[in-house]
Amino acid sequence: MTQPKDPFGWSKRPYPRLFIPGPTEVRPEVLQAQAELMIGHRTKDLEDLFAAIQAQLRRLYETKYRVFVTASSGMGQQEAAIRNGVRDHVICFVNGAFSKRWSEVAAGCGKRVTRVDVEWGQAITPDLVADALRTHGPADAITVVHNETSTGVLSPVGEIAAVVREIAPDTFIFVDAVSSFAGTRIPFDEWGLDVCLTSSQKALACPPGLALAAVSDRVLERAKTIEGRGWYFDYLLLEKYLQRNTTPSTPAISLLRALHVQLTYILDEEGPANRYARHAELAEMTREWALSRGFGLFAAEGYRSPTVTTVANTRGIDVGALNTFLKSRGMVISNGYGDLKNKTFRIAHMGDTTREEMQYLLETIDEFLGG
Ligand SMILES: *Cc1c(COP(=O)(O)O)cnc(C)c1O
């Protein structure tokens, strides 16, 4: 009997190689950074680390503003944006599970929420946003998810921001870029965003546990006038400590070290432009593969994600069986999200995945389809 090929040794690993849309595969060098000796958090060592990360994040976000780093998952920063930037009314655009969640977070914070839904698989467009602002405005902010991980749709956030700035200059633009940041370019200042948040465990390819958020000056100005900002995610408190390169409460020191190693790699070894190009190439490769094998693509044409492809299961394959087969080879992909389970499946190409690794995954799926 011939052994199945195993070019990366994945079938011998205790856990499968992740092709799911978060957490993503973390490089050994980044994992190992977490094993360094512990330090006190009120030390110069910590401040130096925090300052270095801050400078790196401003480069990656292309911003002159600050980037808050909190020990939480990304959802913590969804809540922070609402608490700090919304006095009363927020318009939440919903085209999938994570954008829906943001509307629930806003309602949970006691704000008045106008929810504008489009069909899953569709993008949030500048025209839709313009209409909603005219119909439902004024609003303190809008929320939009850049890359809906549940559907594989990328919405044109730069164009949306331009429209909001024109029609409703006092309305803040809050963007969830959890599964797109570090996988595609997000020039925060050029686009005129107000909050752009992300998590460590998606395209950044770090372990979960950190949330990052670039925040504009005008949000901090408004935060001064808003009651009930809470404590843990109070932007003004975070800002006060950030000025001294530290955090109000104990930071996740090991995770910060991992993030620093990974940001150094992204910025100074791979380079952001190469990283974005690689994501675009892997996405293109995955889409071509899906179509040429007789599957469909769930996301609307023109808005397909560079970091995760939602394959429409038009062949009606058994997605569970596919994943069982893949796991026997040391890999795993994701089934469709919620109601889209089995009707779609998701192949993530975010993080540090190479062309060769992607090729091998697709070949192995072919093997399953052929058998
Ligand atoms: C994963 C994800 C989230 C949730 O992030 P957590 O870090 O799990 O809180 C929110 N939004 C999007 C678009 C996501 O992909």
Automatic annotation (TrEMBL):
Where N6-(pyridoxal phosphate)lysine occurs along the chain?
A: 202
Which controlled-vocabulary keywords does the entry list?
Pyridoxal phosphate
What name goes with this protein? Aminotransferase class V domain-containing protein
- Tree of life domain: Bacteria
- Which protein family is named in the record? Belongs to the class-V pyridoxal-phosphate-dependent aminotransferase family.
Question: Cross-referenced InterPro entries, in alphabetical order?
Answer: Aminotrans_V_dom, PyrdxlP-dep_Trfase, PyrdxlP-dep_Trfase_major, PyrdxlP-dep_Trfase_small, SP_NH2Trfase/AEP_transaminase
Q: Which residue intervals define the domain Aminotransferase class V in the entry?
A: 34-336
Q: Which organism is it from?
A: Ardenticatena maritima
Indicate which residues the UniProt annotation says bind substrate: 346
Which cofactor does this sequence's record say it needs? Answer: pyridoxal 5'-phosphate
Q: Name one GO molecular function term.
A: alanine-glyoxylate transaminase activity
Which one GO biological process term can you cite for this protein? Answer: glycine biosynthetic process, by transamination of glyoxylate
SUPFAM superfamilies assigned to the protein according to its UniProt record, in alphabetical order: PLP-dependent transferases (SSF53383)
